[in-house]
UniProtKB/TrEMBL annotation:
<dbReference type="InterPro" id="IPR051455">
    <property type="entry name" value="Bact_solute-bind_prot3"/>
</dbReference>
<dbReference type="InterPro" id="IPR001638">
    <property type="entry name" value="Solute-binding_3/MltF_N"/>
</dbReference>
<comment type="similarity">
    <text>Belongs to the bacterial solute-binding protein 3 family.</text>
</comment>
<feature type="signal peptide">
    <location>
        <begin position="1"/>
        <end position="19"/>
    </location>
</feature>
<protein>
    <submittedName>
        <fullName>Glutamate transport system substrate-binding protein</fullName>
    </submittedName>
</protein>
<feature type="domain" description="Solute-binding protein family 3/N-terminal">
    <location>
        <begin position="43"/>
        <end position="267"/>
    </location>
</feature>
<dbReference type="Pfam" id="PF00497">
    <property type="entry name" value="SBP_bac_3"/>
</dbReference>
<keyword id="KW-0813">Transport</keyword>
<keyword id="KW-0732">Signal</keyword>
<dbReference type="InterPro" id="IPR018313">
    <property type="entry name" value="SBP_3_CS"/>
</dbReference>
Amino acid sequence: MRFTRMLRVGAAVTALALAAACGGGGGGNSGKSLVQRAKDTKKVSIGIKFDQPGLGQKTPDGKYEGFDIDVARYVAKELGVDEGNIEFKKAESAQRENMIEKGEVDYVVGTYSINDKRKEKVSFAGPYFITGQDLLVRADNTDITGPETLDGKKLCSVKGSTPAQKIKSDFSKQAELQEYGGYSECLAGLSSGKLDALTTDSVILAGYAAQNPNKFRLVGKVFTEEKYGIGLKKGDNEGRDAINKAIEKMIADGAWKASLEKHLGPAGYKIPDPPAITEK
């Protein structure tokens, strides 16, 4: 009897271990491709930004809006997932790779610049948008005119994002870098005078400037090129190819341009030409 009970316990432990290995905790945990998971479950979990006006924002009434949100939904639709079966999760810049690797999300659409360091951990589809790094300052500031004028200035960037270090290494070696957890914290510091400038991609900063025209202004001197991609599980080539097809379709049918005009047009942001897909 005792031996039989031990066998039963052992079988139960083995079953639990197998269930965990097969992804019982969420769609991203299984060994299946994104395409197969979406087909099987008719659901997706997507990492997005909650605090970027015009791109990815969670509104006070709990809705999600912006260009990145539209892209995320379009891709989900092409994967066969209804909008009501999308779960959006907040993806802080420093946590995006972890969320993908751990299977907490199926893919990330959150102003996610494609670079070699990130590609060591995740795969990318796209790009679906190309922008460049710029600076946001207080509306009454006149002495910050570009990245080379930041020596001795307190410069804010978000943890896990790429821009601030480039300024220090290439333009203003004496800039005082301040890393915060989110853009809203940087904006609060900038508004209070604790910080002198915020750096990230111009398309992100344009949204903040449009939302607070009496507080902030965009310097308007772009000095890098940033290609936004959609991050997914490393090695999921089938998922990558499916997302690329969705991006190309969104561009071809006019939904890409319409979304940009809706969400970024009011900020006076010049809509660029659509990018060519390079992550194949």
